[in-house]
Write a structure and sequence with these properties.
The chain has 388 residues and is of the alpha/beta class. The protein has 2 domains: 130 residues, 2-Layer Sandwich (Nucleotidyltransferase, domain 5), CATH 3.30.420; 198 residues, Phosphoglycerate mutase-like (Rossmann fold, 3-Layer(aba) Sandwich), CATH 3.40.50. 36% of the residues lie in helices and 21% in strands. It contains 13 helices and 11 strands. It has a 6-stranded mixed sheet with strand order 8-7-9-6-10-11. The protein has a 5-stranded mixed sheet with strand order 3-2-1-4-5. A hairpin with a 5-residue loop joins strand 10 and strand 11. The protein starts with a strand and ends in an 8-residue tail after the last strand.
Amino acid sequence: MKVIVEADGGSRGNPGTAGYGAVVLDAETGELLAERMGALGIATNNVAEYQGLIAGLTAAAELGADEVEARMDSKLVVEQMSGRWQIKHPGLRPLAAQAANLVRRFKSVKFTWIPRERNKRADALANRAMDGKSAPEEPAPATPPRKVAGPDSPGRAAARAAAASASTRTEVTAPVSSWVPPTAPATRLVLVRHGETEYTARKLYSGRGEAALTQRGLAQARAAAERVGPVAAVVTSPLSRCSRTAALIAEAAGGVPVRVEPDLVECDFGAWEGLSFAQVQEGWPDQMRAWLASPAVAPPDGESFDEVALRVNRAVERLRAEYPGERVAVVSHVSPIKLILRDALAAGPAFLHRCYLEPAGLSSVDYWPDGGIAVRSVNETAHLRGIT
């Protein structure tokens, strides 16, 4: 689906009382699909404009859009996001980085400057936010955001295959920025998969259900804790297989705080929970094919990888903002970690089925304030040698 995002932000005083607004429109019909607005307290015009863009891109992603034209009357934001102007102000770099991560969620994003008189809808929402008014009633989405797998007709199956093929050739119209040497230390996320459980050992789908670490899993978690080393904090999925692993990492790091982050929970596999790949293939052959072909498809009564990616990206953005320049251990599951690595590498959907992560394996990603990202390692397992 292609959409148009119109975004704006303003400040009465610059800096002063600030707010932002954004609308999402169907690119073919012009139908209003979503409106977003928010007050920012005291901020500058440029900060508010970036917040409007972030809100609009987030809404477009939640609607399942894959192509976006982002229209703004801010020449600065359009030129910076298009990679033609440098982002010199340090206060804008984290916002540009957040917008850049959202851009990577789409097949293509085009940034277009428009005169202010053509951006009245977003401007009105921004002013409404600055006036302290509540948001207007949200329009009903044109299509439900969740796509639960069901029997496909031959034509629909062919369309899914074509979409999956096209997604491997994703191109972002607007590069975020040209490479420049980093000017500030990176936030390093050390991504740790939890130790082995009975479900892991038997290769069963293990999503939202609780599954305790085995004795081998505990040994793996202790080894991972020693390998992780010093960190500023440990952030974990709420499920016990992760929180137990996280506690061992925090203890080995000298008793640093452990924070539960609900957005890092594993994918909800719905009706497939606790089953093997062979059992799912036998019981839901059409749904399994559709699920493997597209990250937008969910297991019956479950959650799609696209939905998981949205919440995991929210968690990553929060960690980048809260721990600038720090080293943070992130304890999670296969799907969230794979999605973080996929987006950091700007890889396609096939990455999710080609990347293997061992229980208690470590990966690491660096994030710079100006939007730069570097994957340092994937699935380190040397610390697990000798554990039987």
